Amino acid sequence: MNKNSVLIWSFVVALGGFLFGFDTAVISGAEKAVQVFWSLNEFQHGLTMAIALLGTVIGAAMGAYPSDRLGRKNTLFLVAALYFFSAIGTALVLDWNMFILFRFLGGIGVGVSSVTAPIYISEISPAKSRGKLVGLFQFNVVFGILVAYLSNYFIGQTGEESWRWMLGVQAIPSLIFFVLIFFIPESPRWLLLHRGKKDEAIAIMRKVSGDQAENDVEQMLNSRQRGQEKGESQLFSKSNRTPVILAVLFAVFNQVSGINAIIYYAPRVFEMAGLGGQSSLLSTVGIGVVNFVFTLIGINFIDKIGRRKLMFIGSFGLIASLSLVSHAFFAGQIEGIKVTIYLMLFIAFFALSQGAVIWVFISEIFPNDVRAKGQTLGSLTHWVMAAVITFCFPALTELLGGGYTFMIFAVCMFLQLLYVWKMMPETKGKSLEDMDGPIPMH
Question: Which of 5, 240, 282, 393 has its CA 20 to 30 A from that of 434?
């Protein structure tokens, strides 16, 4: 029963990841129609594509504040509301400026969600299954991306203003998410460490760890006391230098792989490779399926073989697949099937490694007192880089061509391999309190 309760709570919160993924990918099917509908120039089109990411950056930057002040649960209510109003607004507006505003609100929801949801799940999860449970968030992110691609493909055949339905359909899962949040408890670590509600924390922990609940709560209190004595209550203190460096670099490498550029511009990339419009949308669905399947594989192995080994495997695969895409463009061999296969390989290795590991790893490595701030830092770095890459990708491919663009991504993944080899610690099987001490870097 205890295990089932934690699984249900984790799955409900991970629905925030579904909306995160759906909101991120759905614009790929609507971007050309939106450009035509409002006769947007290149700058306006770039802003339309990047505005949600700018909102995500702001949402990620402010994510720690509501998470710590209002609680993890109340912050998730806020996230659900932002997703709902963004979906309704973008579907109904007739003015481009209002469209931009509602996409921006949805982006804020994504940013806050990427901070709060992984924290909540990590704080209610037993150490032995924390990787898999936090991984549910990323699993739902890629499930949301897949559903968005499928939705775009089918809705895209319904008429000239099908893009409104593409964006508006997100209101339905947003409303379901809002209702389900009523049925989950607050994070016991937040109740204990931010509100001093020990009895409530113990009652919730009994559903997590049974007879060990009182002992777990004492460990949390002892861990906080040790952290305060060492000055760990400040994120940028000397004692937190290692987790800060690890989180920032991990988030940077996540985006300089080119993943968000490919997800946002997938139909356009496939058209560059010679596919027609409908074939491009269908190939994009294929990317969503591969992403979904390999994320599922990744989260099933993350607690067995560990975070670091998955990142080793993924880094080699990313270097190889990106190099193949680059070579295909240089050699002029960009007939659809080759580039499609290489991009599928890229997505598979990314989903297996970076995709499955990022939110788990960042949510684990910071002490309890600064976990929300640390998650905010990692998430903020991730989304700043995502905004930069997404905004620059069209200009980069125009200026340098596909060959050099994908070569740059491959070089960045070689640097990621060095990071995993020399710096990244293994965190599988350790309690959050066990990791409050010094983190060894390889």
Answer: 5
| Segments in 302-335 forming alpha helices (H) | 307-331
Written in H, E and C, the secondary structure of 112-154 is: HHHHHHHHHHHHHCCHHHHHHHHHHHHHHHHHHHHHHHHHHHH
Structure tokens at 374: 């640390």
Q: And the tokens for 416? A: 């990621």
Rounded distance between C-alpha atoms, residue 266 and residue 226, angstroms:
48
Q: Angle, to 10 degrees, between the axis of helix 2-37 and the axis of helix 96-124?
A: 160
State the Cα torsion 251-253-255-259 to the nearest 10°: -130
Mean pLDDT comparison of 84-98, 124-138, 367-381, highest-scoring range:
84-98
The pLDDT value recorded for residue 1 is 44
Q: Which of 15-29, 54-68, 268-282, 415-429 has the highest mean pLDDT?
A: 415-429
CB 388 within 8 A of CB 412: no
What sign does the CA torsion over 155, 156, 162, 167 have?
Answer: positive
Residue identified by tokens 């109904």 is: 92
What contacts 220, CB < 8 A, 6 or more positions away? 189, 192, 193, 201, 368, 433
Assigned token pair, 280: 């491009």
What pLDDT, on the 0 to 100 scale, is given for residue 95?
92
- The position carrying tokens 């949308």 is 281
Share of the chain above pLDDT 90, in %: 40
CA distance 435 to 442: 16
